[in-house]
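Please go through this protein, sequence plus structure tokens, and consider how the sequence yields the tokens. Keep your notes short.
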Amino acid sequence: MSLKYLSEHAQDAILALALARKEAEHLRYSQSTLFALSIDLSWVQTLGNHPEVAEKVEAFISRFGRLQDHLGDKLLPRFAALVGENSKSLLDTLAIAEKTELLVSADAFIAARKLRNALVHEYMYDAQIFLESLFAAEQACNMFFSVIERVEAELNRLGVIKNQLFV
């Protein structure tokens, strides 16, 4: 019999996946409500006059960052540990995720991290950069959702989910 995964890491990986799914659900909601609006440069420039809309933007940015942090700090490292890979840094984790095809591009994940910084810091300073960052973040959400789907599929393929209580 060959070992498919390290069972002592299974529950941690499953819990991280469950939390990622919940975080993704919240981000999807923010994404769908925010980007249902007609967003352009003038919209961004007048955002300060519309606190109810600014709140939607803040929720999206917060949820975007929280899911990205969870993927990079919890889900992907726990998956790596599950399959016997040692990741000591975010770069190690992303390289493992890329190698195992959970992540198409580590560079894209890192670029999304820079987007979050631009969304937080350029919000009040440069409307054009903020607008571009907002649209790029919308696209990066798809990468995050794909990572979650791929991790879940891999946990199913390895038999982790059927062998554990799934939350």
In short: The chain has a mean pLDDT of 92. The longest helix spans residues 51-82. Residues 9-161 form a domain with the Four Helix Bundle (Hemerythrin (Met), subunit A) fold (CATH 1.20.120).
